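Technical appendix A lists one of the benchmark inputs used to test multi-chain prediction within the project. The record comprises four sequence entries:
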Amino acid sequence: MQAVPQSRIQRRNRAAISEAALDVFSRQGFRGATLDEIASEAGLSKPNLLYYYKSKEAIYQQLLTGVLSTWLDPLRDLDPQGDPVEQILNYVRRKLDLSREMPRESRLFANEVLRGAPLVGDHLNGELRALVDEKAALIEAWAADGRIAAVSGRHLIISVWAETQHYADFDVQVRAVMGSGDPMAGAAQHLERLFRRLIEV
Amino acid sequence: MQAVPQSRIQRRNRAAISEAALDVFSRQGFRGATLDEIASEAGLSKPNLLYYYKSKEAIYQQLLTGVLSTWLDPLRDLDPQGDPVEQILNYVRRKLDLSREMPRESRLFANEVLRGAPLVGDHLNGELRALVDEKAALIEAWAADGRIAAVSGRHLIISVWAETQHYADFDVQVRAVMGSGDPMAGAAQHLERLFRRLIEV
DNA sequence: CGTCGATTTGACCAGATGGTCAAACAAAGA
DNA sequence: TCTTTGTTTGACCATCTGGTCAAATCGACG
């Protein structure tokens, strides 16, 4: 990704397209989304949209790649020097914040993985796997030192993903079950409790 | 649903269609799936398929309804008379077994909810909500009696869903992260630990 | 066998969809 | 103003997709 210089107009339109595409792709998935809907939501004609991105897949790819790195930031920041319990609980908090603030991105990713991750499979088996290897080892080192309870690093990380992303991805279901009021209410408390109990010695 | 008498041929073909449709819908989602693919996987021609089901949506609906009740069985069986901790842990176990044995059904449902549950929204706000109301109350009664730790019944149930379904729905991701060997290995232990620690007084 | 209802299929259709292209239009500098 | 470059669009296309239909084929039973 090099920073190609862009005119004012280019920047505006590309941004509008990304925004519209995120909306549509996250709701409908890749195959369910249509260029017409994206174009119309971006306030452009379809040919005009294709003037900025060479294909439907190109837009999708770009969104996905953008999300991926954001998504891993909180895990990347797990600090070997910090207090183990605080580090992990903070990881959970930041991940939950992401779900709260970027539910569309979360669903975009969920849709992709559900399909079998045809476009990000390599990334999963490369970058993601490497990062998890590293951080799982860190967690297990903490456990071995008796600074947190014995726990599988990989499964702990998976649990954090499962719990936090569920609130974004299955929003409709959560909403149905939580009744009126903010469905997110209490989620933070609940997860803090859950993970604290899991890892505290 | 009444039991319409069916010929041998009808039973065989309807079963083949259901099986093929489950496969395709769970991988591609509703919009991504095509009648051609389903028909071909069922070993029938497309018009022949439409002789048995009147539309794409009809097949989908039927699958979804079938899954829904199975999906709630374990929760339904939470027994007020049983030992609280054992009841909840057993619920987790059965839910994880479902994920292990019926990953396609899990993904089918996940796809539907991700889309905003257009076809099962009513079910979620009706049957599901009622059941969760009842069981969440039960859990919180146990908590109030000091038989398990204080915990939100609704959030506990959501956690069970999140944790167990994640292994089926995001299989590709789990597999990438868990490295070689059975990705499910250790999941049961981990979840047992996690939920035991969460609810034990 | 012959008949009648159940089953299967090839041909077809209308609408949607991703994508192309040449022409029209705007912007900005010379 | 003229020219050049960047931007936008209407018309169009090939393909895919859900669905129809009349005709052909099959199967069971008298």
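Chain B touches chain A through 53 residues (CB under 8 Å). Chain B has two domains: 1-54, 66-199. Comparable benchmark entries are summarised in Table A2.
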